[in-house]
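Explain this record to help learners:
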Amino acid sequence: MPTTFIQHPGRSGMFGALMDEYARAAEDFCRVTDWFDASRFDGERPENSATTRSPRIMCAHVCGASHRYAHYIRKARGVDFIEYYQVEPALIVSPRDVRRLLAEGITFTESTVEPLRNAREDDIRALTFTVRWGPVYDPEMLLEHAICHLLRHRRQLERW
């Protein structure tokens, strides 16, 4: 299945499956954002959290998170990382910008897990880290979270 979100769709193994599902969730998320017009994209719901106050802010949050998840894994692997990567909402001029920014984050994630593709399951499980919201994850668990993160916010945007 061709995708703009990952370079190597259809790969075998745990990370191949997770990256395929991450790309699928990203495609579904972007399909929803593409339907927003400018006024709805900036419409605010003050009762929402700071990261979900408007569709534009939510999209910046989602795009930034796609990078942050990869940086958690990079830190656990002992390679260069950014402690807290953010995407400024101003970088998302229109809903069409979300696809490019999200693809950058997910492609970065794909390259981040590439060195783990042939690792033993025990070695993957040993790469644990505490995320800023509290739980302890390993790379597999964090990618599962990343997929559900997109699904949850896609659903939220569908109901906007």
Notes: The first strand starts at residue 129 and ends at 130. The CA atoms of residues 41 and 55 lie 5 Å apart. The first helix runs from residue 13 to 33.
